Protein backbone atom coordinates (compact mmCIF):
# COMPACT_ATOMS: atom_id res chain seq x y z
CA UNK A 1 0.00 0.00 0.00
CA UNK A 2 2.94 2.35 0.61
CA UNK A 3 4.04 1.40 -2.88
CA UNK A 4 0.65 2.66 -4.12
CA UNK A 5 1.18 5.99 -2.32
CA UNK A 6 -1.75 5.51 0.08
CA UNK A 7 -2.15 6.28 3.77
CA UNK A 8 -1.54 2.92 5.41
CA UNK A 9 -1.50 3.40 9.18
CA UNK A 10 -3.30 0.53 10.94
CA UNK A 11 -4.34 -1.20 7.69
CA UNK A 12 -2.80 -4.66 8.07
CA UNK A 13 -1.14 -5.08 4.68
CA UNK A 14 1.68 -7.52 4.04
CA UNK A 15 5.17 -6.65 2.86
CA UNK A 16 5.68 -6.11 -0.84
CA UNK A 17 8.54 -7.87 -2.63
CA UNK A 18 10.47 -4.62 -2.36
CA UNK A 19 9.79 -4.51 1.39
CA UNK A 20 11.09 -8.07 1.79
CA UNK A 21 14.24 -7.14 -0.11
CA UNK A 22 14.75 -4.05 2.07
CA UNK A 23 14.48 -6.22 5.20
CA UNK A 24 17.12 -8.63 3.89
CA UNK A 25 19.37 -5.73 2.88
CA UNK A 26 19.06 -4.19 6.36
CA UNK A 27 19.98 -7.53 7.93
CA UNK A 28 23.08 -7.75 5.74
CA UNK A 29 24.16 -4.31 6.94
CA UNK A 30 23.92 -5.64 10.51
CA UNK A 31 25.68 -8.96 9.84
CA UNK A 32 29.32 -7.78 10.26
CA UNK A 33 28.57 -6.66 13.83
CA UNK A 34 27.43 -10.11 15.03
CA UNK A 35 24.57 -8.70 17.10
CA UNK A 36 22.98 -11.25 19.46
CA UNK A 37 19.23 -11.07 20.05
CA UNK A 38 17.61 -12.27 23.27
CA UNK A 39 14.11 -11.05 22.38
CA UNK A 40 12.34 -9.20 19.59
CA UNK A 41 9.40 -6.76 19.84
CA UNK A 42 7.26 -5.76 16.87
CA UNK A 43 3.90 -4.12 16.31
CA UNK A 44 0.91 -6.42 15.79
CA UNK A 45 0.81 -5.43 12.12
CA UNK A 46 2.08 -8.25 9.92
CA UNK A 47 4.38 -6.05 7.86
CA UNK A 48 6.35 -5.34 11.06
CA UNK A 49 6.26 -8.95 12.28
CA UNK A 50 7.26 -10.35 8.88
CA UNK A 51 10.15 -7.90 8.62
CA UNK A 52 11.45 -9.16 11.96
CA UNK A 53 11.18 -12.76 10.77
CA UNK A 54 13.14 -11.97 7.61
CA UNK A 55 15.86 -10.15 9.57
CA UNK A 56 16.22 -13.02 12.05
CA UNK A 57 16.25 -15.69 9.33
CA UNK A 58 18.80 -13.75 7.27
CA UNK A 59 21.05 -13.46 10.35
CA UNK A 60 20.54 -17.15 11.24
CA UNK A 61 18.56 -16.44 14.43
CA UNK A 62 15.11 -17.88 13.56
CA UNK A 63 14.75 -19.30 17.07
CA UNK A 64 14.54 -15.90 18.78
CA UNK A 65 11.15 -15.19 20.39
CA UNK A 66 9.05 -12.38 18.90
CA UNK A 67 6.51 -10.43 20.98
CA UNK A 68 3.90 -8.27 19.23
CA UNK A 69 2.43 -5.16 20.85
CA UNK A 70 -0.17 -2.70 19.55
CA UNK A 71 1.73 0.17 21.18
CA UNK A 72 4.30 -0.07 18.38
CA UNK A 73 1.69 0.17 15.63
CA UNK A 74 2.03 2.86 13.01
CA UNK A 75 0.13 6.10 13.51
CA UNK A 76 -3.61 5.75 12.78
CA UNK A 77 -4.49 8.18 9.99
CA UNK A 78 -8.22 8.28 10.74
CA UNK A 79 -10.48 8.87 7.74
CA UNK A 80 -7.40 9.21 5.51
CA UNK A 81 -6.52 5.52 5.84
CA UNK A 82 -6.51 3.74 2.50
CA UNK A 83 -6.81 6.98 0.51
CA UNK A 84 -4.44 7.92 -2.29
CA UNK A 85 -2.22 10.73 -1.04
CA UNK A 86 -2.31 12.76 -4.25
CA UNK A 87 -6.09 12.46 -4.58
CA UNK A 88 -6.50 13.45 -0.93
CA UNK A 89 -4.39 16.56 -1.52
CA UNK A 90 -6.58 17.52 -4.49
CA UNK A 91 -9.77 17.01 -2.46
CA UNK A 92 -8.80 18.81 0.76
CA UNK A 93 -5.93 20.99 -0.46
CA UNK A 94 -2.22 20.33 -0.10
CA UNK A 95 -1.91 22.79 2.79
CA UNK A 96 -4.57 21.01 4.87
CA UNK A 97 -3.15 17.55 4.19
CA UNK A 98 0.30 18.80 5.14
CA UNK A 99 -1.10 20.03 8.47
CA UNK A 100 -2.64 16.61 9.15
CA UNK A 101 0.54 14.78 8.18
CA UNK A 102 3.30 16.97 9.58
CA UNK A 103 1.92 18.90 12.56
CA UNK A 104 2.62 17.58 16.05
CA UNK A 105 -0.74 17.69 17.79
CA UNK A 106 -3.41 18.05 15.08
CA UNK A 107 -5.33 14.87 14.24
CA UNK A 108 -6.69 13.98 10.80
CA UNK A 109 -10.48 13.63 10.44
CA UNK A 110 -11.70 10.65 12.51
CA UNK A 111 -12.64 7.40 10.81
CA UNK A 112 -16.32 6.48 11.09
CA UNK A 113 -17.17 3.54 13.36
CA UNK A 114 -18.95 1.91 10.42
CA UNK A 115 -15.78 1.97 8.29
CA UNK A 116 -13.75 -1.16 7.60
CA UNK A 117 -10.75 0.87 8.78
CA UNK A 118 -12.16 1.45 12.27
CA UNK A 119 -9.96 -0.80 14.47
CA UNK A 120 -12.87 -2.39 16.37
CA UNK A 121 -14.11 -3.84 13.07
CA UNK A 122 -10.92 -5.86 12.53
CA UNK A 123 -10.42 -8.95 14.74
CA UNK A 124 -6.65 -8.44 14.51
CA UNK A 125 -7.09 -5.63 17.04
CA UNK A 126 -9.20 -7.57 19.54
CA UNK A 127 -6.10 -7.68 21.76
CA UNK A 128 -6.22 -3.89 22.15
CA UNK A 129 -8.34 -2.62 25.08
CA UNK A 130 -11.43 -0.97 23.58
CA UNK A 131 -10.76 2.34 25.34
CA UNK A 132 -7.37 2.57 23.58
CA UNK A 133 -8.61 1.94 20.04
CA UNK A 134 -7.92 5.12 18.02
CA UNK A 135 -10.15 6.66 15.38
CA UNK A 136 -7.30 8.89 14.25
CA UNK A 137 -4.00 9.97 15.83
CA UNK A 138 -1.75 13.00 15.78
CA UNK A 139 1.98 12.39 16.06
CA UNK A 140 1.70 13.48 19.70
CA UNK A 141 -0.91 10.80 20.48
CA UNK A 142 1.21 8.18 18.70
CA UNK A 143 4.25 9.04 20.81
CA UNK A 144 2.19 9.02 24.00
CA UNK A 145 1.07 5.42 23.44
CA UNK A 146 4.61 4.26 22.62
CA UNK A 147 6.25 5.58 25.80
CA UNK A 148 4.42 3.27 28.29
CA UNK A 149 5.83 0.33 26.31
CA UNK A 150 9.35 1.73 26.66
CA UNK A 151 8.99 2.37 30.38
CA UNK A 152 7.22 -0.87 31.33
CA UNK A 153 8.84 -3.39 28.96
CA UNK A 154 12.23 -2.21 27.77
CA UNK A 155 13.70 -0.10 30.57
CA UNK A 156 13.34 -2.86 33.24
CA UNK A 157 15.10 -5.34 30.95
CA UNK A 158 17.90 -2.89 30.25
CA UNK A 159 18.30 -2.25 33.97
CA UNK A 160 18.81 -6.00 34.40
CA UNK A 161 21.48 -5.91 31.72
CA UNK A 162 19.41 -7.88 29.23
CA UNK A 163 19.63 -7.21 25.46
CA UNK A 164 16.59 -6.03 23.47
CA UNK A 165 15.59 -5.79 19.79
CA UNK A 166 12.63 -3.44 19.46
CA UNK A 167 10.84 -2.08 16.37
CA UNK A 168 13.82 -1.58 14.15
CA UNK A 169 15.95 -0.80 17.18
CA UNK A 170 18.56 -2.96 18.85
CA UNK A 171 19.26 -2.59 22.57
CA UNK A 172 21.72 -5.20 23.71
CA UNK A 173 19.94 -8.34 22.53
CA UNK A 174 16.42 -6.96 22.33
CA UNK A 175 15.14 -5.87 18.95
CA UNK A 176 12.18 -3.57 18.24
CA UNK A 177 10.69 -3.63 14.77
CA UNK A 178 7.95 -1.05 14.31
CA UNK A 179 7.09 1.82 11.97
CA UNK A 180 8.30 5.30 11.12
CA UNK A 181 6.05 7.23 13.50
CA UNK A 182 6.27 4.87 16.49
CA UNK A 183 10.06 4.79 16.12
CA UNK A 184 10.06 8.58 16.04
CA UNK A 185 8.56 8.48 19.53
CA UNK A 186 11.50 6.51 20.90
CA UNK A 187 13.98 8.63 18.97
CA UNK A 188 12.42 11.86 20.27
CA UNK A 189 12.93 10.58 23.80
CA UNK A 190 16.47 9.25 23.28
CA UNK A 191 17.74 12.25 21.31
CA UNK A 192 15.84 14.74 23.49
CA UNK A 193 14.25 16.35 20.45
CA UNK A 194 11.79 19.20 20.64
CA UNK A 195 8.31 19.00 19.08
CA UNK A 196 9.49 21.21 16.24
CA UNK A 197 12.48 18.94 15.57
CA UNK A 198 10.58 15.64 15.61
CA UNK A 199 7.92 16.74 13.11
CA UNK A 200 10.72 17.41 10.59
CA UNK A 201 12.53 14.14 11.32
CA UNK A 202 12.22 10.89 9.36
CA UNK A 203 14.42 7.82 9.29
CA UNK A 204 15.98 6.82 5.96
CA UNK A 205 14.20 3.67 4.83
CA UNK A 206 15.69 0.41 6.15
CA UNK A 207 19.04 1.91 7.14
CA UNK A 208 20.05 0.53 10.57
CA UNK A 209 21.07 3.17 13.11
CA UNK A 210 23.07 2.05 16.14
CA UNK A 211 22.65 3.93 19.41
CA UNK A 212 25.27 3.35 22.11
CA UNK A 213 23.72 3.98 25.53
CA UNK A 214 25.30 4.88 28.86
CA UNK A 215 24.41 3.06 32.08
CA UNK A 216 21.73 5.68 32.77
CA UNK A 217 20.34 4.95 29.26
CA UNK A 218 21.32 8.35 27.91
CA UNK A 219 22.78 8.32 24.40
CA UNK A 220 26.55 7.94 24.19
CA UNK A 221 26.75 7.87 20.39
CA UNK A 222 24.79 7.18 17.23
CA UNK A 223 25.99 5.50 14.03
CA UNK A 224 24.33 4.74 10.70
CA UNK A 225 25.36 1.33 9.29
CA UNK A 226 25.79 2.71 5.79
CA UNK A 227 28.57 4.60 4.07
CA UNK A 228 28.15 8.32 3.49
CA UNK A 229 27.37 8.19 -0.24
CA UNK A 230 24.81 5.40 0.13
CA UNK A 231 23.19 7.27 3.01
CA UNK A 232 22.78 10.32 0.78
CA UNK A 233 21.08 8.18 -1.87
CA UNK A 234 18.78 6.60 0.73
CA UNK A 235 17.66 10.00 1.99
CA UNK A 236 17.15 11.28 -1.55
CA UNK A 237 14.94 8.32 -2.44
CA UNK A 238 12.98 7.90 0.78
CA UNK A 239 12.44 11.31 2.36
CA UNK A 240 11.98 15.02 1.72
CA UNK A 241 14.53 15.99 4.33
CA UNK A 242 16.28 19.28 4.37
CA UNK A 243 19.92 18.98 3.26
CA UNK A 244 20.90 20.57 6.57
CA UNK A 245 19.61 17.56 8.51
CA UNK A 246 21.44 15.10 6.26
CA UNK A 247 24.66 17.08 6.61
CA UNK A 248 24.24 16.99 10.40
CA UNK A 249 23.75 13.20 10.37
CA UNK A 250 26.76 12.60 8.13
CA UNK A 251 28.87 14.93 10.25
CA UNK A 252 27.95 13.08 13.42
CA UNK A 253 28.73 9.74 11.83
CA UNK A 254 32.05 10.87 10.34
CA UNK A 255 33.25 12.11 13.72
CA UNK A 256 32.88 8.55 15.08
CA UNK A 257 34.56 6.56 12.31
CA UNK A 258 37.32 5.52 14.69
CA UNK A 259 34.84 3.56 16.86
CA UNK A 260 35.32 -0.07 15.88
CA UNK A 261 32.87 -2.96 15.70
CA UNK A 262 34.02 -4.51 18.97
CA UNK A 263 33.06 -1.41 20.90
CA UNK A 264 29.60 -1.46 19.36
CA UNK A 265 29.15 -5.11 20.30
CA UNK A 266 30.18 -4.51 23.91
CA UNK A 267 27.88 -1.53 24.47
CA UNK A 268 24.20 -1.21 25.27
CA UNK A 269 22.99 -0.77 21.70
CA UNK A 270 19.80 0.19 19.96
CA UNK A 271 19.30 -0.23 16.21
CA UNK A 272 16.57 1.63 14.32
CA UNK A 273 15.55 1.11 10.70
From TrEMBL:
The reaction(s) this protein catalyses: (2R)-2-phosphoglycerate = (2R)-3-phosphoglycerate
GO molecular function: phosphoglycerate mutase activity
Ligand binding (substrate): 47, 74-77, 85, 101-102, 180-181
SUPFAM superfamilies xrefs: Phosphoglycerate mutase-like
Keywords assigned: Glycolysis, Isomerase
Signal peptide per UniProt: none
Keyword Isomerase: yes
One BP term from GO: glycolytic process
Gene3D superfamilies per the UniProt record, alphabetical: Phosphoglycerate mutase-like (3.40.50.1240)
Any Pfam family matching the protein: His_Phos_1
EC annotation from Swiss-Prot or TrEMBL: 5.4.2.11
Site (Transition state stabilizer): 179
Similarity comment: family membership: Belongs to the phosphoglycerate mutase family. BPG-dependent PGAM subfamily.
PANTHER family on file: PHOSPHOGLYCERATE MUTASE (PTHR11931)
Protein name stated in the entry: phosphoglycerate mutase (2,3-diphosphoglycerate-dependent)
Organism: Theileria annulata
